[in-house]
Every structure is written in C-alpha cells, then in structure tokens.
Amino acid sequence: MKFLIDRLAFRDALQRVEMAIDRKPTRPVLGGILIEANNDSVVLMASDLDMAVRYRLGQVQVDQPGWAIVPGRELVDIVKDVESETVTLTLTSKGLCQVDAGEDQCSLVTMESSAQGFETPESFPTVPQFEDGEKGLVLSKTDFMLMVGATRFCTSKVKDTRFVTEGVLLETLGNQVTMVGTDGRRLSCIRRTAESVPEKDLHSVLMPRVLDQVMRYGQDEEGESLEMRFLGNLVGFRIGNLESFGRVLEGEFPSYEAVIPKGGKHVVRAHRDSFSQKLRLASHLTSDSAAVVKVSIKPNMLEIASEHEGRGRATASFEVDYVGDGILASFNPVFLLDGLKASHSEQIELQMEESSRPVKFVLGDDFEYVVMPLSMTS
Amino acid sequence: MTIRRLDPIVMDQIAAGEVVERPASVVKELVENAIDAGATRIEILLREGGCRRIEVRDNGSGIPADELPLAVASHATSKLRKPSDLEAIASLGFRGEALASIASVSRFEMTSCLQDSQEAYRLRVLFGRPEDVVEVAGAPGTRIVVDDLFAELPARQKFLKRASAEYARCSAWVERLALAHVGVGFRLEHDEKLRLEILPESPLRERCAKVFGQGLSERMIELERSDPMLQIQGLVGPPESARRDATRVHLFLNGRWVRDARLLRAVREGVREFVPLGHYPTLYLAMALPPDRVDVNVHPQKTEVRFRDERLVFGSVVNTLRRGLSQSSWATRRVGEIGSSSVQEGKTPSFGDSSPSRGFPAPNTFGGAPSVPVSQATPQFDLQVHPADVGKGKVLSIGKTFLVRQVDGGMEIIDQHALHERVNLEELRRDLQNTGVAVQPLLVPALVDLSRQELELLLSRSETFQRLGVEMEAFGETTLAIRAVPARLQRLVPEQLVQDLLEIALDHRKATPDQIQEEALFRMACRGAVMAGDDLGEEALRDLLARGADLPQDRTCAHGRPVRVFLSMEDLERAFYRR
C-alpha cells in the first residue's frame, strides 16, 4: 500500500472517523483505523462496535493498493501536527506504516495489514455498506439538521443505554418524517417532508452519539441531502463521502402523541428574545440550576417571578399578545430557555389549558415543544 | 434411669452460667455491688486475667456478720423489698443472683466490716459449700476474693480464653464503670502492675482521657439535653476517631452501662452525616430517666434495656448528637480552619480576617463590630452578611472528580460528588421545612414492574414519598406508575428511583415515616448528584460552589465522607521541608 494525499483533506477525513475510535479499547483493533487504498480512492474506517464510520477520499494518487490497520489516535495526531502540504503513506514489507510529510517522518506499527499476507482484515469489525438499489429515507440536509437540533437538546442526559429516551425517535408516515426527543419532563416534536421514503414506515430510536457526529461534520460534506438506511438493528447515515452507523436503541419509546396537547384555552403569542431575556433575568435569583420560576399570564402581559431564599427575589415582565383570564404556572426556567433557544421563529406561541396540564410551545413550522409545569408539595 | 431432683449445689452452678460467664462478669458484678454499697474507692486486683484470682476491695457500707451467709444464698438481696420495687430499679444490682452464683463456681472469700465497727467477719465458700463465719481483722468496707474460677467445672473452664484476652474484658468493664460513676475512685492492678488509676474527684473528661487517650479526650465536644423526662449528657470524639466497631461507644442508662442494638442504631443515625457510613464515633453518652420509665430486667447481664417510651429516647439521642455535632467545628464551614493542622476549637471566624476575594463586602465589621459566625449568618435574608466566597479565584478541576482552589491561608480540595450530594440534601431539607418540595410531574408516567409484595410495600409508604415529591400509584397488579419526581433532582431516573425506594422500604420495614423520609432524602440526594468523572462546565462548577457556600454544614457528604480537605500553607511548607 502506498498513496500520496493532500494533508488537510486527509486530516479532515481522519477527524470524521475519529469519533468511532474506542477510547479504551477492549481489543487493540478497536482503537485502530482501517485504511484501504484502492485504485483511485482511499477509504478510512473505524468502529467501537457501538458506532462505525466509513469515509471515502477520492482523487488520491494511489501508487500501490493495499490495506492496514494503524493505531488510530496516533495517526490522527500526527497528521494534525505535521506541516507539509501532502502526506505519503507507505506500508513497508515489515508491516510498518510509514508517514512521510515533507521533512518529517513517522512510522506506525500496524495491527494487521496486506503486507503480512492477509487477504482481508480479519479482526476488524465489519463496517456495513450502503447497498445500491435499496431504497432508504432521504431528507434534505438542512431539514435533517433542523430536526436533530430541535429534538436532541431535550433527550435524557443520563448516560444509561437502558433508557431509550437517551435517543431521538424517528418515525415516518407516508413521506412525513417525525422526530421526537423527551426526558420525561418535557418533549419536543418536529415534522418535515422526506424527499423519498422506504416502502415500510419507520419507527426507530436513534443513538445520540451518531446524531452528534453527523451534526458535527455533515454540514461540511458535499451534497444537499442525507440518506438513511435501516439495516437490522443498525441505522446508517450517508452525507457526501461520510457514512456513519450506529445502533438503534431498543425499548419502548413513550407514546408522544398522547402527551402533546391539542390546544389550550389560553393562547399567548410572545417575542422569543424578550421571553428569553426576561427568563434569564429571573433565573439569576433562583437557587440553582433546578430552580423554579413562576410565570403569570395576564392580558397583554407576561410576568416571571423568582425567589432565592437568602439572596433576594426578582420580577420581570414584558408585553405579549394575549386576551383572556389570568393564569399562573411554575416552571423550571432551564426547560423554557432550552426551548426558546431551539426555536426556529422569532414569534412563539404558548398554549395552555390549566396550570397542572402540559403546556405546549409552538416554536416554528411543525415544531412543538411540551413542558410539564411544576407543582409544590403540601 | 430415674428422675431425681438436682443437688442444690449443682442447681446453683447451672444457674451461675447465666450471670457468671467469665472473669469479666465477676469483676462487673463485684464492682457494681461495691458501688451500690456507696463505696468511693474501689480496688480491683487481678491475677492471670482473673482466672487465678479476682480481688475487689471497697470502702462501702459493709455487710453485718449475721447477713453474710444470706448474701451468698441465691435470690437474696438488700436492694429489692417488694415486687413493686421491680418497677423502679435504682440500684445496679437487684436480682440477688451474683454472689451466690460466683460463690458456687469458685473458691470464694468475703470479708466485711461495717463503717463504724471495729470487727470484721469473714465467710468462705468452696464451690458452693459455705464454711462458718469467723471474726478477723479488717478495714471498714468489703473485700471479696474469688480464686480459681471454674476450677471444678472443666466444661466451663474450657471456654475461657488466654489470660490477656480475659484481662482485656475485665479492664473494659472497669473502664465502663469508671466512666459511669464520677465520684468513685478506681484502681486496677493486673499481675501486680498498676493498669488504671482514677481518683474519686477526677472529672469526666479526665476519665475519658484515661480511657480514650489524652489527645482525643481534649478534642471531644460536649453534648447536653435537659428535660425532666430524659437528661442526656455526653462527650463525642471527632470524626476521624470513628471506628467500624462500637468498642468506643459507651452508653449509660441511669449509671448502668448498656449495649442495646437499637440504641446503637440511634447513635449511628445521630452521627451519620459526620462519620463515614457504618462507623461508630468515640462516644460517652449518659442518659438519666425516671427508673419507672425503663425496664432493665430483660437479661441477666442487664446490658439490654426496654424503654416505656422508645421514641422519646431514640429521638432524643439522635437529636442531641446531631445538634451537638452540627455546632461543632467539624461541621461549621470555616475557610482556613478546616483540616487537622489548624483546628481551633471555639474560635469563630470573622469577616475581618477573610480574604479580599469574597464576593460580598462585609460592612458590619468595619466599625470593629462583633464578628458574625458564618453558621448563624446563612439562614437570614440578608444580602450584606452573605458569606459566598465563590469569587473570582480560579477553580481547577482534577480528573473530573476533584476541584482545587485557593482559599484564605492555603488551598482546598473538594470532592464534586460529595459536595453536590450534601447540597442536594440540605436544599431538599430546607424545601421540606419551608416552602415544600417543587414537584416535576412526568409527561408520561414511568412504569416499573414489581412483585405484588414489593408493590404493596412501596404503596404503604407512598404518603411519605409524596412529601418528598415522588408521586406513585398502582398501575395494574404488579406495575407501579411514577407520576412525579422532585424537580430539583434532574439527574434522577424514575426507574432507578423505584429500586432505591424499594430497598429503603425493605431495609426499614418497621421504621417510622420520618425515618423512611430521612433515608429517602439521603438516597435521592446521592442519586441526584453529579458523579466523579462527570464533566462540569465552568458555570455548573461555579453554581455548585455557590450553593455549597450557602450550606449550614458542608464538611461531609451525606454518607459522612469528607467534602473538603484543606491544606494550609503550613501543611504545604511542611510537605516541601520548608519548615
């Protein structure tokens, strides 16, 4: 194996697969990156068994095809730190992977390679392929990013895979795609139309790590759309040259439709930024991050009150569009701020039936956010 | 084989087993008799751990010659007269078994002389067979010699341990009795070596010094509770003197050393926030309550007791310990004073000597006004004396577990989980007392499958849990639905919460609702806390430290592990051999 490659392109590609390198590998090979050099392209792969990434680099000058599994973290760091414009990787007959970068030279011990006479990498986990011809779910990249951004923030933060709410639910009904995130205390739901859908409707919970990876690097990839494939208990994402795979979370996702209120007696229209600003002001005088603010809605006025025992109290109010009786409810300000931050539109709508029922915020086109108000004991 | 009535001597020897197990029980019985006889000086001389000889001399009232034979007869006592006396026992002994039992299993010799008399009389009993009383020379008081304990009973002798082990038990009893009876002098000799000497006039703390060691005794703090129904007086040692076993716990009830499993539990409960979980403190605790409120006649050894009003007693023990400890320097937050090298009892920190990096100015100290103790300043709604010193100083996170920062006079290392746990606990408690707990109802109830018994057990406690903000109800026969959780604990997972609450309910089946509530609080505080290894952002860090600064007690986490370790400049200089 020998190829010459543009350093920056190689660096970026390595960063994309880096997320799937096992940080504390149980087997050494899980901490490695598999490099495959074909006739005019190089493919990088990594997998920690929970998540796998494949990245294809075209227009590479391949002098000699071949493959090698090299220590992942080291290769990423080396390519990040050398300064030359191009890098040459050569697999020596002794099974060393030599990195030539201008005046600098490194050689890495491979874990397995074509130089040792192996046909294919045996110990490396299989990274699935996007088969041609099959029909996947295709979304515009912008829509996908919006949907993940609108749901990911309210998934459960407890890192325990037993809980399916750690992930984001993805459902299709015809060509309508729905994503839902919830931590049991709040829920966010967004709908978009797919460019194309598989024959069977989907219902899967996506692993947050893969979503985060796609969100981080998908934007820079070429192409306007993203394709998803469901392969058994795996889900694959393809944007441009990037293919990411992750497990689908098992378990019963809460039935979100029953949770989202259909509407409410009290409908308030408010400016997102004023709402956020007043909330932030009031939350300076709550005792901690799990604090309480009291939101009171009056005709054309929304008032937010808070109190920190031992520090003081605050009241902030601003003008809103509301006609009707006054109503008061307590909230965790963090939940409200999170929603407002994720909002797609500058004007938001708040719908409320009574102070002990879930409150719905409309934060954009087909984007709803539901928060359960707090109550007090005794 | 024919059935025959036992020889009375054999009967006595069998009965003796209940009272006289080993030399230590003989020592205990004889010394208690001496105390009941009003002695102010008691000498105990042992040989070979008491197996060879136990001699107890006192300067008590003495026994008249004609009563000597009766004293060694079973169920003969001067301490009870009529059945109703049993209801209110004020003396240490009362069963009338001890002397008879001891005399039946040893070579026993008792010499006694009345206080104002010139003649002493002696009675010898050889393994239950009394000889005649003879007149001898002797000083006022009683002297009892017990030789060759169990010599004629090989079966019992087999159970005796090495002389050193038997001696250790004997001396433990002497120590207990010496702690319990201030005003009585004790002198203990073993194999002709003086082991313990306590003068009659020696005060309690001096006695503690002899028993626990001088340094420890000086650092023990006083506990007190006065109530006509139950008086408590005590001394408790610092958290680092706590032990896994209860050997340093000395509980006294009306002058009697007791070892009651439930009382010990109350002790553990009272100190649980100050010493590591499962540890017992170094403790002297004397309780006095009217004799008719307690039954000591539960067990021949009288170390177990029954209370008429258990709740009052246990509750008072817990509260006395808690109150005493929470006012101690081990609990009060003192920047610059936490830690071993710079503990200064009784010194109150003032804002005048605090670092300039404090977040709030302290105008009340400018005019030389009296300083305000931090522990009193916190609960008030007063911005000016707020001691938050989460200032501009840098906080360094080490291994996502510890936080290090500079404080006045040195540096402080904080365990992030322990601090968060403590913060949660205090805030939950405060909420409970004041406004009530903020409850976060769940959008969709969390369903947890349980066995029928588990479900019933949890539901039987549901009212208590509800006060904490956990709302649950049955959902079918074997499923529990959690409808709401405390809003404060955002990291709490309902499914995990159910497991925790179930464990608590199982472990404390007979506990009162208050105890269950307390247990649940502890658990929730821990579960809701950040873990070691959790990455805290700058803001979360600052928030946590600010919340920590608001606490009345933040030295230990809810399990008694330390929250903060303070290294003074002196400590650091010493570490680098600059001192």
**End-to-end gap of chain B:** 85 Å
CATH topology of the largest domain in chain A: DNA Polymerase III, Chain A, domain 2
User: Beta fraction of the residues of chain A?
Assistant: 35-45%
The number of helical runs of chain B is 18
Average pLDDT metric of chain B? 77
Summarize the biggest pleated sheet of chain B. Answer: 9 strands, mixed
The helix fraction of chain B, in percent, is: 25-40%
Using the alpha-carbon principal axes, give the shape of chain A: elongated
What is the name of the CATH superfamily of the largest domain in chain A?
DNA Polymerase III, subunit A, domain 2
Low-confidence stretches of chain B: 332-392
Secondary structure class of chain B reads alpha+beta
- Under CATH, the homologous superfamily of the largest domain in chain B reads Histidine kinase-like ATPase, C-terminal domain
Q: Using CB atoms under 8 Å apart, which protein chain pair has the greatest interface?
A: A-B, 36 and 39 residues
Q: Could you say what the CATH architecture of the largest domain in chain B is?
A: 2-Layer Sandwich
Our measurement of the CA-to-CA distance between the termini of chain A, rounded to an integer number of angstroms, reads: 73 Å
- How much helix is in the residues of chain A? 10-25%
Would you write up a description of this structure?
The complex is a heterodimer of chains A (378) and B (579). Chain A is α+β, with helices and mostly antiparallel strands and 378 residues long. Chain A has 3 domains: 115 residues, DNA Polymerase III, Chain A, domain 2, CATH 3.10.150.10; 121 residues, DNA Polymerase III, Chain A, domain 2 (Roll), CATH 3.10.150; 112 residues, Roll (DNA Polymerase III, Chain A, domain 2). In chain A, the strands form 3 sheets. Chain A has a 17-stranded antiparallel β-sheet that branches. In chain A, helix 1 packs antiparallel against helix 2, helix 3 packs across helix 4 and helix 6 packs antiparallel against helix 7. The longest helix of chain A has 12 residues. Chain B folds into 4 domains: 195 residues, Histidine kinase-like ATPase, C-terminal domain (Heat Shock Protein 90), CATH 3.30.565; 122 residues, Ribosomal Protein S5, domain 2 (2-Layer Sandwich); 123 residues, MutL, C-terminal domain, dimerisation subdomain (formyl-coa transferase, domain 3, 2-Layer Sandwich); 86 residues, Ribosomal Protein S8, Chain: A, domain 1 (2-Layer Sandwich), CATH 3.30.1370. The longest helix of chain B has 18 residues. Chain B is built from 18 helices and 23 strands. In chain B, helix 2 packs parallel to helix 6. At the A-B interface, strand 27 of A face helix 12, strand 20 and helix 17 of B. Strand 27 of chain A pairs antiparallel with strand 20 of chain B.
